[in-house]
Structure formats: structure tokens, C-alpha cells
Design a protein that fits this description.
- By secondary structure, this protein is of the alpha+beta class.
- The chain has one domain (13-113).
- The chain is built from 4 helices and 4 strands.
- Strands 1-2-3-4 form a 4-stranded antiparallel sheet, covered by helices on one side.
- The protein starts with 15 loop residues before the first helix and ends with a helix.
- 31% of the residues are buried.
């Protein structure tokens, strides 16, 4: 993706921990698929390291360990995990960080899923 204006403006409340997860969501290979309205599956890793997670956009959560430990409401640690960031980027709701080396699959996902 060209160096477009980043959605990660510190004045908009994006903290460094969330920005790091957004960067990972943009750079790491991940597959996404729609399960139901506002409910998405995300697959990442390969071989014995492959895992699937469910991102619930309505509730603002993911089934990954990162979200379970750091994303609980009121924890203040992260606003989203890399899986939810990937879904939001594919939907065109947020942009990848300007300094991210964007995964090629994300561009195809944006073409398919963005509204």
C-alpha cells in the first residue's frame, strides 16, 4: 500500500501497543472469512503453528490469547489484537500503519471485503 495517511494518530487515542498489533496485522500472512454478520474467522501461521480465531466486531473481541490477557474491557492494555486489526483493515475501516510492509494478501482481502 502506498504511504497513505495513517489512521494511527496518537491524538486519536491509538497507543503504541495497539499500533504494534496493527502493524503485525498488516504484515503477517493471514486468511480471513466471514462467519456471520460482524463475525469473522482468521487463520494465521502454518503447519503445527497454524491457528484459527474468531473476531466478533459487534462485541469488539477475539478468541486469541493476546486479547484474552490484554484486551479485556477496562484493562487499558490494547484496543485490538492483530487478528481484529486485520479484519478491520480488510474491511477498509482502518488503514495499515504507514511504516508497515503490507502482506500482499491484505490487498486482495481489501478488494474483496471493503465496503
Amino acid at each position: 500500500m502506498a504511504a497513505a495517511e495513517s489512521a494511527h494518530d496518537p491524538t486519536a487515542g491509538i497507543d503504541e501497543a495497539t499500533l504494534t498489533r496493527d502493524r503485525r496485522g498488516a504484515e503477517q500472512p493471514m486468511g480471513i472469512w466471514r462467519i456471520a454478520e460482524r463475525l469473522w474467522g482468521v487463520g494465521s501461521g502454518s503447519g503445527s503453528e497454524y491457528s484459527e480465531y474468531v473476531v466478533d466486531l459487534r462485541a469488539g473481541r477475539c478468541t486469541c490469547d493476546d486479547w484474552m490477557h490484554r484486551g479485556k474491557p477496562g484493562s487499558g492494555q490494547i484496543a485490538r489484537c492483530k487478528h481484529s486489526a486485520r479484519v478491520l483493515m480488510a474491511l477498509g475501516r482502518i488503514r495499515p500503519p504507514a511504516d508497515a510492509d503490507v502482506d500482499r494478501a491484505l490487498e486482495a482481502q481489501r478488494t474483496r471485503w471493503s465496503q
